[in-house]
Amino acid sequence: MLTSIDAIASSIPKMHTILKDCPFEVIREMKIQTFKKNKFYLPQGEMHAFVYIIVSGNVKVYVMNQSAKQVTLDVYSCGNLIGEQEAMIRKPFSASILGISEVTLLKIPDKAFLYWLSKDANFNQIVISSLCEQMYKLTNRTIKYSLDSVRSQIISSLIEESYVQKSMIIQKKAILDSVSSTNRSVYRVLNQLEVEGSIVISGDEIKIVDREKLWMDPERKR
């Protein structure tokens, strides 16, 4: 178990890149925290006085739509920051954060984070790149949710999850969370895709049996 900042920086390349020029004053303010699955939670709409850097594990970023349906925006892993934009503009969290595995994090007070940004050009560039990447992903997801049909969203999510997970077996909940529509509509399309021979549904899992067919579906946005 990694119990010191030095151990984290020396054993994890991504963390070394982030921490290599971190001022000592900031390191003194950092705390290492580990949470069991589903125990790390920061709710949307609330102020939180800390920025977090993920050392290990996976964290889901999600929002609730007007129908109280949960929509996943992204899944963060090692090296991703949580709460950096809210710290910079002093606003409540725009999305909820949930650890979907055991997670280890560096917890940094907002004031120390802002000081770090002002003193470390390397870290400043990392944060800018991270924010740009988030904006790029969010723009693509906005297009997907607002313009794509439910079928197109589901097919894109199936293909994306298969590449991210490196598996043809996808958890049904991952698809439900990634599509901006009612669960009933999602199930209807999934059943259609099963009848067409693209997938097989078994309990909580979806197995992709013909990814090429999904890829070539006329409703999938190219």
UniProtKB/TrEMBL annotation:
CDD domains: CAP_ED
Source domain of life: Bacteria
Signal sequence, start to end: none
One Pfam assignment: cNMP_binding
Keywords linked to the UniProt accession: Activator
Presence of keyword RNA-binding: no
InterPro entries documented for this protein: cNMP-bd_dom, cNMP-bd_dom_sf, Env_Response_Regulators, RmlC-like_jellyroll
Nucleotide-binding listed as a keyword: no
Domain Cyclic nucleotide-binding, chain residue ranges per copy: 25-134
Protein name (Swiss-Prot/TrEMBL): Crp/Fnr family transcriptional regulator
Native source organism of the sequence: Paenibacillus filicis
